[in-house]
Amino acid sequence: KLNLEKSMSEVARGYELTPGAVLGIRRPYNFVEGEYPNYFESGKGSRIIDLDGNEYIDYLCAYGPIIMGYCEEEIDEAVIKQIRDKGFCFSLTQSIQNRLAEKMVEIIPSAEQVIFLKTGSAAATLAVRLARGYTDKTKIMRCGYHGWHDWCVEVKGGIPEKLYEDVYSFKYNDLASLEELLFEHGNDTAAIIITPVGHPLGNKIEEPKPGFLEGVRELADKYNTILIFDEIRTGFRVALGGAQEYYGVTPDLSLFGKAMANGYAIAAVAGKKEVMKKAEHDVFVSSTFFPNSLSFAAALKTIELLQSKKVLEYIWEKGSKFLEDIKALTAKYPVGAEVSGIPPMPYITFQRDKAKTYKEKRTDFYTQLIRRRVFMQPYHHGYICYRHTDEDLNYTVKAIEESLVYIEEKDY
Ligand code: PMP
To answer: Which residues contact 30 (CB under 8 A, 6 or more apart)?
Structure first.
């Protein structure tokens, strides 16, 4: 068992200072309480170090922003240069915004114009507002996690029903579930918003079945509604132009964030000029920190590195081998562990069973992994980044094998 003394005393202090000590999915009970650290001290490349000095190979990548690695020098240098030479917070926007927008228009199939924000939730809310403004319709069909704002968050405390009563959920890879909703509400549907890869919390990742995304596109056209791809996780990771490029289906609007600046706070709505232009007059969006240019400098450098170092090819190659290796292990040790995902986003879940032993197995499995200093999230898929070395991945495959053997040998 790891020594987590400092982490535990810090989290006790945290509970006094912040509700739940830390927010949302980062709370201790969202890992294995008592086994995982609660705070990190630092990170470099593929490694992170907790308050007690334990070093881990990290597969959560800060929940997605880390595409190169932690503390990537060339990116940090680009940011430091911006601070030192020019400054980054002014009353007017700096022209670096246009350089980044041009780059996005060049690489993202659906992007004719871009609006930059700082968080994915803000981007999702803006896209929905643009769609409603453009179509003059009200209802939203959604599929996936789109952030914490009133219209879409799952936990409804503090939100009057009228703020989300026009939002309906459909099932990923189930075109009929969307068709049914549209049959009933299609004439008043402003947008269909979907994560192009299905990644429901705590459940297996789902790749689109052949024809699914194309079918969603067709339904959006049939009912004259705006198709929004939420590419906050898949953007700059599945392909440079996002999952829309990889799967060959082009939405009207799409959302980016996370990996686009290797950890600096940025998000974007990109899409058809005709729809985006609604934000010139009728649809309002603004924030003090939207023009803050540190993340623009970081994003430009990140994208430059993704291209010059063929980062995504590397990630697909390493990730494919890793997925294959761990799939072979779950076949070799049939204890209920299931591997899902795509090479840049692997995930190990446990098959549900009536006796609910899967919960104990999941806890045991992730406990064994963290004790071997492999940091993965039991309830969230992982990510592969550029700084994951063969050595890291091979060590991790071995740790996964040992953890599966532990489960095989235990009585449930
Ligand atoms: N959409 C998706 C698909 C996400 O994964 C997230 C964040 N996990 C969001 C939207 C919200 O982004 P943010 O947390 O930056 O507000």
So the answer is: 377, 378, 379
Q: Give the atom of ligand 1 at the shortest distance from the alpha carbon of 257.
A: 15
Name beta bridge partners: 139.
189
Centre of ligand 1 to C-alpha 280, Å, is: 25
Whether residue 192 contacts residue 218, with contact meaning beta carbons closer than 8 Å, is answered with no
From 282, 308, 334, the end of a domain falls on 308
Same domain flag for 67 and 116 = no
In this prediction, residue 411 carries a pLDDT of 92
Q: What kind and span of H or E run contains 275?
A: helix 273-276
Calpha distance 382→127 (Å, rounded): 27
Any idea what the CATH number is for the domain that residue 49 is in?
3.90.1150.10
Residue 244 contacts by C-beta under 8 Å, 6 or more apart in sequence? 108, 109, 110, 196, 229, 231, 250, 251, 254
Tokens of 382: 């992982």
Determine whether the shortest distance from the Cβ of 147 to ligand 1 is under 6 A.
yes
Count how many domains the chain has.
Answer: 2
ipTM beyond cut 0.90: yes
* Mean pLDDT computed over every residue of the chain: 97
Check if 232 has its Cβ closer than 6 Å to any atom of ligand 1: yes
Identify the sign of the CA torsion 149, 155, 156, 158: negative
Spatial separation of the C-alpha atoms in residues 377 and 379, rounded to whole Å: 6
Over the stretch 319-362, which tens digit does the pLDDT of each residue have? 999 999 999 999 999 999 999 999 999 999 999 999 899 999 99
What are 377's strand-pairing partners?
380
Q: 250 is in which domain, residue-wise? A: 74-308
Ligand 1 centroid from CA 112, angstroms:
22
- Output the CA 146–ligand 1 centroid distance in Å: 6
